Amino acid sequence: MKIVQVESFILRVPIPRLVTDAFNRADRWGLPGVLVRTDDGLVGTGYTSTLSHGDEAITRIIDDVYTPLLLGEDPRDTQRHWERLYWSDAHWVGRLGVTQMALAAVDIALWDLKAQACELPLWRLVGGHKAGSVPSYNTDGGWLNFEVPRLVDEMTAIVEQGWTGVKMKIGKPNPREDVARVAAVRAALGPDVDLMIDVNQRWDRTRALGWAHRFEPFDITWLEEPMDPDDVEGHARLADATHIPIALGEHVYSRTAFRDFVSRGNVGYLQADVTRLGGITEWLAVAEMAQAHHVPVVPHHADMMRVHQHLGAGHAAVPMIECIPWLQEVFAEPADIRQGTFHVPDTPGASTAFDDDAFARYRVA
């Protein structure tokens, strides 16, 4: 099996409604990615995700740097290709961010091909830990732009659909407003629903140390991305200052960076994201490290749960995944979610293939 064509693409897909958190505002989703075709007719699909900014920079790395290194190669040699692309000319201009996201798109496509060639769904190929299903928690009712009555209604509706864990955004300019919002949601949900809160990096160290403990009375499962994700020392100090576990990882781009957090013992949950981390190859390295340190991995949703449902079902480090049920209509196999649990396809591959009509409709490059 040899790679004969590498074709980049960019999709821009509307999401159901305008949403905001403390850092972002979104009404559409960008999917820059790649189709990798082989001489025996297989097509591997991989992508990363954005808020529709910087997509062209990602595909430019794929076209100009990664594609020449892939043509004529066997796509099943995923570890070898990952090392070659990581240490390619792209390494000179950036080891994180755009280059790592471009590498993620390619690596996901190669694993999709490997799973197809093995005639296995990805979840079996990476371990088959959970027999084809994985629980999830839902973030889609907790947006920062929702006023309290709508926030409570939406969070309650998610629980009524079968989810037992939900997440809400905090990070208002006045943290007292955050406390009031969390109090209202906890009162509405009662004590038997897991409630996570997400600051989206908006606190500095002083605010984090001064305010995190004020959320403790609400039985918070985790405090997510409280501050700069590069501030390892700050997270260590915060972990000592509150009994709420800290979660982070959607903006951590390498196993080395995750190692620094894990070795300090200052995070309770790793939210490794396959679309940011350089793909499945690097994600698996992080999951193995996390498991060795008895720290659970709960992947961030940015792949729209396509690959993460497989990794969650396949790997023992993952107790659950995040769910924001957008964009399912653009994929050939929409997610099968029942009572908050993903039932993962048995179709060979990584479930990244797009619906042909949707792909044509939303493709901009």
TrEMBL record:
CDD domains, per the entry: MR_like (cd03316)
Pfam families: MR_MLE_C, MR_MLE_N
Keyword Amino-acid biosynthesis: no
SUPFAM superfamilies according to UniProt: Enolase C-terminal domain-like (SSF51604), Enolase N-terminal domain-like (SSF54826)
Cofactor: Mg(2+)
Entry keyword set: Magnesium, Metal-binding
GO biological process, one term: amino acid catabolic process
PROSITE patterns on file: MR_MLE_1, MR_MLE_2
Domain Mandelate racemase/muconate lactonizing enzyme C-terminal: from-to ranges: 148-245
Claim: Cytoplasm is one of the keywords in the record: no
Alphabetized GO MF terms: hydro-lyase activity; magnesium ion binding
PANTHER family (UniProt xref): ENOLASE SUPERFAMILY, MANDELATE RACEMASE, MITOCHONDRIAL ENOLASE SUPERFAMILY MEMBER 1
Identification of the protein by name: Mandelate racemase/muconate lactonizing enzyme family protein
Protein's organism: Jiangella asiatica
